[in-house]
UniProtKB/TrEMBL annotation:
Taxonomy of the source species: Eukaryota, Metazoa, Ecdysozoa, Arthropoda, Hexapoda
Record keywords, A-Z: Glycosyltransferase, Membrane, Transferase, Transmembrane, Transmembrane helix
Location of this chain's protein in the cell: Membrane
Name of the protein: Glycosyltransferase family 92 protein
Main location class: membrane
Keyword Flavoprotein: no
Top EC class for this record: transferase
InterPro entries: Glyco_transf_92
Family: Belongs to the glycosyltransferase 92 family.
Membrane topology: Single-pass membrane protein
The keyword Transmembrane is annotated on this UniProt entry: yes
Species in which this protein is naturally found: Drosophila virilis (Fruit fly)
Amino acid sequence: MRKYQQLALLLISCFSIGVLLMYKSENNRLKYVLKYVNFFGRNDAAVLRRLQNGTAAEDLQHLSKSAFSKPLPVWQLIGDSFYAYSAYWKQNELVVGGEAHIIVVGKKGAVVDFRCSFDVGGRSVQGKFRFQRDAAEGVVDDKASTFTNYNFFCQVSRNFGQPQYVLFSDTTSPIKRQVKLRLRHLKPATAKADAKAAAKATTAAASVASGQVRLPATICVDLVSFDQSTRFARNVDAMLQFFLFHQALGVEHFLVYNYDELPEQVVRLLDRTNMHLYALPFNFPFLQTSATAARIRQLLQTDCLLRNVNYASFTMLLTPNELVYPNARFASQLAKGTVQQLLRVHATATPHFELATFAVCFDERKKLLVDNVQYDPELKSPNKLLLHRLELPAAQLLLPTATTVELPLSSGLAHRYVDCQQVGADGLHDWRNGVRADLMDHINDLRNEVDLLI
């Protein structure tokens, strides 16, 4: 009898172990599924708020899927030595006429001599050509570069309707031909309406003035200079968190330069959210090196500013390993304090705000990016991280003399996640040590929201 009891006990034990192993396997599968079910199926207040904000902004703005990408920018040969990326038309408000602004690169040392005209419904209207070397040309070492950045302008002093194309012909070329560039029309704005809206804007709806609606903020994503070989770039969760953290701040619209470099798995996941991604190609015609990074970034920044004028209140140019943490969210219907309100202490003539940037060591074992707390104080960012306030006319935003204010650490900060392979002599520090309690609470709120989704 005892033998049968022992046998029964052994069978029950084996069965229990089998059930336990099966449960563990199924539990792991369930966790994997829930990770993405949570990403798309949350109904908590944080996610509902973002859905509500995104829907409200979209209802007000009526943006199409190509709002920021049409006409599609592409590097196009316009002479023997010059390439144009994008062309913008701005109608003058106080005087007759208007001007086309074209982002151009040319071979170093090439002679600039063009004629320009406009195509208006099949009718040709002659324009006056002028050009400027980009502002970065005066501060960046030009010895290693094979190209020069330019801003081309074609101006007319009378009103003849809305042109659809601007045409250029290179007078130095032995082959005389006109190259046609499709114009993107800058969204018009009334100065008085903008000033009134800026003073009152605390929500997306409150920024409506005379039919003028602006998104709280957009982000231009730089995948042109982003190093795709880093551990960060190969980490899908890290790439997702770039978008999720900024969405928690109130950003729903992302303009992605060199869009094809965005991992397909990231694209598929983001396509099922209420975020809006705009694909912008960047088939740059010259060799890109570390020495030309600042010059290429300036091209992207110029296009980003022009593309967002009167569409958004703020914009930033960021690589996916750069996260910004201002001490408030961008304007939303439920936010008590917003970036818009906090920056009103600065004059509207101040369009650019620099955020203190920490080179934070990226550890793949950390679930959330913000949980990486060690940074190298000796590792400096290759570029300034700027928050652009788009209240001024486009020409003033792009002036080399446009004011830039360095924001105190209490107003916000930025993280640039890097591989800390060679640490400086001063060692690593904890970035939280210098952060005020209220800003840290705000960052933790963002962290908790993203933790629900990732």
